[in-house]
Amino acid sequence: xxxxxxxxxxxxxxxxxxxxxxxxxxxxxxxxxxxxxxxxxxxxxxxxxxxxxxxxxxxxxxxxxxxxxxxxxxxxxxxxxxxxxxxxxxxxxxxxxxxxxxxxxxxxxxxxxxxxxxxxxxxxxxxxxxxxxxxxxxxxxxxxxx
Amino acid sequence: xxxxxxxxxxxxxxxxxxxxxxxxxxxxxxxxxxxxxxxxxxxxxxxxxxxxxxxxxxxxxxxxxxxxxxxxxxxxxxxxxxxxxxxxxxxxxxxxxxxxxxxxxxxxxxxxxxxxxxxxxxxxxxxxxxxxxxxxxxxxxxxxxxxxxxxxxxxxxxxxxxxxxxxxxxxxxxxxxxxxxxxxxxxxxxxxxxxxxxxxxxxxxxxxxxxxxxxxxxxxxxx
Lengths: 146, 223
Description:
The complex is a heterodimer. Chain A is an alpha+beta fold.
């Protein structure tokens, strides 16, 4: 059961930032539960969104919860990351679509490290697994001007 | 009486010595005067060079302003062309990227040819301006040469060559600056024009199309 919960949590992650923020949140939550000796489920409810609470409230006990937090931090840090430089502020739905698409192509879970750079004009630059490609409109225009 | 030849020899010697000293004094005076003239000539040449550089600088600034104005006109046309390209392109179709690229190619070619025309006209204008400046310098130097005689001709010619070299260097540098400016402005305005014209949906389409192209090269499998 805890393994399935961990898997669900990792699957929910789309971006590197999200993974880092969640790991930080779990760390703070752990400290809070320790120091306040409050009921862990109550703390989860008050500190996490409905979505995450729904997943984590199925954990049988506090010890298992802390195990999940620890494993999540480790595994999220080791997830494959694709760095995408794009020219606009993307919606969460769009990021989810891209992450899903890239993970399917790569054959494993890939999270996104998104950077917005207006100078690219359109398209994107991708860095993944030590490879880089520039499919931006900026490059196309520059190439044409050469 | 015995002393008479001695005195006369002595007097002759004194006269000769005075003569030598006088000649030496005159020669020395002439040397000093030549040196003074040479220093004046140098100062004169330096002043001329400064004047020429100031004139060239003024001319280049006016050329640059004109380049900017012409480039702005060209680029304003590029901006509206880019907007119309985006609107006309079938953004949701699979041919979108290719057609956008082709349309861009056309627009850019037009802009480049207009730019080349502009740059050429500025270049010839600049060359004419510089040539006239060189002419002024050459005339000035000729007059100076007449004034100071042939002895100084060699040095003066050297200075003239130096001024010509400096002007050539200056001209090349200014033309390169104008060229760089126009290229940069062209690129920046096209960039801005296209970036502003794209909607969020079009951005998303461009990203997805680019990813699909990457799929064809197995980018995500290789990586």
